[in-house]
Amino acid sequence: MKKIFLFLSFISCHFFAQSQVKIANIGDFTTIKGAIIKDCKIGYLTLGQLNSSKSNAILFPTYFSGKSTDIKGSAAAWVDTTKFCVILVDALGNGISSAPSNTENFPEISIRDMVNSQYIFLTKTLSISHLHAIMGVSMGGMQTFEWMVAYPNFMTKAIPIVGSPKQSYYDVLLWKAEWDAIETAGNNPDARREAMRKVAEIHNLHLFTPAYWNKSKKADEAYNDIQKMGDDYTKGNHPENWISQIKAMLGQDIYQSSGKSISEISGHIKAQTMIIVATQDQMVNPASAIELGKILNVKIVELTSNCGHVATACESDKVREAVRSFL
User: Fold this and answer.
1) Contact call for residues 227 and 198 (beta carbons, < 8 A)
2) In this predicted structure, what is the pLDDT of residue 201?
3) Global pTM?
4) What is the DSSP letter of 10?
5) β-strands 131-137, 155-161: how paired?
6) What are phi and psi of 217, to 5 degrees?
7) In terms of DSSP bridges, do strands 299-303 and 272-278 run parallel, antiparallel, or are they unpaired?
8) Ranges in the chain, pLDDT < 50
9) Which run of H or of E encompasses 120?
10) What was the pLDDT predicted at 264?
11) Among 240, 244, 22, residue whose Cα is nearest residue 121
12) For residues 75 and 86, is the Cβ–Cβ distance under 8 A?
């Protein structure tokens, strides 16, 4: 999410390529529903040096509405870029990679489509046939879970962070409320952009916990802060991109996409896995991730602060220690 990493300082590091976002054209891309994205574009940037055998690559996809430039600081904080090359990739629908805002007749997409486009990008553009790891936060965590079942042998390790292998009913209600806040504005583009202010109120309220808001702010101060965030959302997000990625998240279900039941999934997933959850998450319910972690019998790192979904920032040192040790 946009606000998740504002607490993190950007850390200087060595760059494998230019620190500016590059755009890769992966050609015409076919979605799982058979639609075509003409001349599909994937945005990316890299941190660290790719070694000669290309065995130290880590894929780090963006969170919901985020850009690769937004996650650069957290990637540099959590991963030792003197050892690993981190490939920050813009998920389909975010406005840097192909999205409704920059692609005519952009079709409905899924989390699997994001993953499939990244697979083509890695194998065709960068000639990488195996990843040391894949990790991501929030929707990036959802993509990580999807990678684990879509291409189970493509990565050695996987670290989904405050993501979910399957949406909870609570999550679905939240995403549909945000979607509906835009749709009620009608078809006028300006009205739909202005509706992002209401989306900001819904969205940022759920980023933190009730305990956080009650402790840190008076009611009027908290509401004023949330309203101010609306300016950022109105300027920085295209409503059709927002809806596109919400639709993708609404369909997130690795058991359905893999064709494996929850009792069968452990035999399908090959990656060494560590799952990081925020126990008080009000935006991405942790129950499904915890359940899968127990089935896989893997390490589950719990972030317990009242920061909720933003616990990755409030407990960044804990995330850093866990990630670096696991990698």
Assistant:
1) no
2) 85
3) 0.93
4) P
5) parallel
6) -140, 155
7) parallel
8) 1-18
9) helix 111-120
10) 97
11) 22
12) yes
